[in-house]
C-alpha cells in the first residue's frame, strides 16, 4: 500500500496519514510529528485499559492529566497571551475519548512507518517538551523513502513556525522553502526530460514511416 501524508502542525503536534493509490507526485512536510509515542511518554498498560473502560461510560470527561501545553509549546510570550485570549482555542484537558483515539491511532501508525515511501522533510525542535524528537527520528529511520531529510534544531521548542523566536522561525522557514524549491526544480527537470523524450520518439517514428515508403 502506498501512503500520502498531509502535514499539519497543531498544539498537540499530531500528524494525519491516510492511504492512497499513488504518491508519485506528492511530498510531505512534517512539523513536530507525534504519531509515535516514546517509551518515556507511553502510559502503563494497566492505565490504558482502565481509561478504555471509562471511555464507554464517561467519554467526554476532561480528566486526562496533562501539563499546560501553551507554556511549554510556545516560546514567544506575546504568542502565549494571544492564544490564551483566543476564545476559539481549546485550553482544557483532553477528553477521555479524545485521548483514547489518539492513542489507538498512534499505536496503529507506529506499526506501519516502514510503509512510508514518499519524499519527506521532518523538522523538529531539539528542546520540544510536547512531542518527542525521538519519534521523528524513528520515522526517519523506519521509512523506506529514498528521499528523506530529518532536521533537528537544538534549543528550539515545539511550535517552530509560530511561537518561536523570530530569528529561529526564519531559519526553519528558510530550510522548508529551500527543500520545496529543490523538489520543484527536480520535477521540472524530470518533466522537461519526459517531454523531450516524447518529442524525440515522435521524430524517430516519423522518420521510420518515411523510410518504409
Automatic annotation (TrEMBL):
Source organism, top-level taxon: Eukaryota
Domain (Serine aminopeptidase S33) ranges: 18-161
Pfam families: Hydrolase_4
Protein known as: Alpha/beta-Hydrolases superfamily protein
Any one GO molecular-function label of the UniProt entry: hydrolase activity
Sorted UniProt keywords: Hydrolase
